[in-house]
Amino acid sequence: MNTGARFRTFGEWTRERFGAPLHRVALDAGSACPNRDGTKGHGGCVYCDVEGSGTGALREGADLSAQLRAGLRRIARRKNAGPAIAYFQSYSNTYVSTERLEEVLRVVEPHIGREVAAISVATRPDTLPESALDVLARWNERLPVWVELGLECADDARLVEIHRLHTVAEFEDAVRRTRARGLLVVGHAILGLPGDGREGARRTAEVLARTGCEGVKVHQLMVLRKTVLERWWREGRVELLDAPTYVDWLADFVERLGPAQVLHRLQADAEPPHLVAPGATPHASVLRERLDAELTRRGTRQGERCSASAR
Predict the structure, then answer these.
(1) Greatest CA separation found in the chain?
(2) Which of 25, 91, 153, 242 qualifies as a cystine partner to 71, CB 3.0-4.6 A?
(3) 8-state DSSP, 91
(4) Angle at CA 126, nearest 5°, toward 121 and 128?
(5) Residues 61-75, buried b or exposed e (16+ Cβ, 10 A)?
(6) Do residues 140 and 183 touch, judged by C-beta distance below 8 A?
(7) Domain-by-domain residue ranges, the chain?
(8) Is 155 helix (H, G, I), strand (E, B) or coil?
(9) Sign of dihedral through CA atoms 290, 291, 296, 298?
(10) 218 in Cβ contact with 250 (< 8 Å)
(11) Contact assessment for residue 1 and residue 302, using Cβ atoms and an 8 Å cutoff
(12) How far is it, in rounded angstroms, from Cα 275 to Cα 84?
């Protein structure tokens, strides 16, 4: 981390590693989820919409190659545009046969190098067999491959309540196995889940630090349309974090991460047609400024309260 920075940002890290900022191209490969197909349950996690936290582009008729080309064109129009991350986002992308996983990843092949600098594959810790890691490790010999694993919170009881239906131990095992293959891991967390509280946010950061995830994505709980969480919220069963409270809890969270972990994301956004609550969130740059101001007020920084074993 730079000596003047109070937390390690994704932009800082990509400039160090790749010499330029990277931009994600979100891709929908049409993957499934064991929480939806009946293997573990139906309906998905309580906060997850019909797009599986993704774009829904495949359902709307855009095949993978077209999605990637369109995303690369959008990035090319940006000022000082750098290369892209091919981000396989929707649902659980290793919850497929190895043949299908190879087929999905091959859409990146024509663009490796100047256009695509890395691959990021989102999945669940309980849908990551060794055969999938074999495929990802082979691709990692050609360009960096990151595996994005959802923990969300470090409490098995809460993971049942929100219908996540994996355990903290499964997350820890998946991180260990993935890192053993030389792949980078980005762990996901949600602050403000029902029943989790401020202490829960702190525990989640501690687990992410202890497992050694190289990257972390964290965001506030949001209520999206056509989710179980929307019904709970309308029934008064869910209390959302306001912006000042989220910054306060986020500072707690960041203090307990490892000092070298990279913060890939600090908040989530959703378009008004899909977002029920809360209202408009601060721009990412504004949130970074508010987090920095809170850590400055406290006189702390990322890793300040990380346990010695996680450093």
Answers:
(1) 52
(2) 25
(3) S
(4) 45
(5) ebebeebbbebbeeb
(6) yes
(7) 10-305
(8) coil
(9) positive
(10) yes
(11) yes
(12) 27
* Residue in the structure block whose two tokens are 């408009």: 280
Residue bearing tokens 């903290």 = 168
Reading the block at residue 154, the tokens are: 């470090």
**Pairing mode of beta strands 262-265, 215-220:** parallel
- Amino acid symbol at 201: A
Identify the CA nearest to 124 among candidates 63, 181, 52. 52
Return the number of other C-beta atoms located less than 10 Å from residue 255's C-beta.
20
Task: Give the whole-angstrom CA distance, residue 129 versus residue 13.
Answer: 29
User: Which one, of 96, 101, 99, 110, lies nearest residue 65 by Cα?
Assistant: 110
The residue to which tokens 């929480």 are assigned: 35
Residue 251: closest CA among 196, 188, 301, 208: 301
CATH of 10-305, one of 3.30.310.50, 3.40.50.2300, 3.20.20.70, 3.50.50.60: 3.20.20.70
**Contact present, 30 and 67 (Cβ < 8 Å):** no
pTM for this prediction: 0.93
Reported residue count of the chain is 311
SS3 call for 207:
helix
Give the whole-angstrom CA distance, residue 28 versus residue 12.
27
| pLDDT in 10s for each residue of the chain, 311 residues | 554 679 999 999 999 999 988 999 999 998 889 999 999 988 889 999 865 444 444 444 469 999 999 999 999 988 777 899 999 998 899 999 999 999 999 999 999 988 999 999 999 999 999 999 999 999 999 999 999 999 999 999 999 999 999 999 999 999 999 999 999 999 999 999 999 999 999 999 999 999 999 999 999 999 999 999 999 999 999 999 999 999 999 999 999 999 999 999 999 888 778 899 997 778 899 999 999 999 999 999 999 999 855 45
Q: Compute the distance between CA of residue 23 and CA of residue 43 in angstroms, rounded to an integer.
A: 31
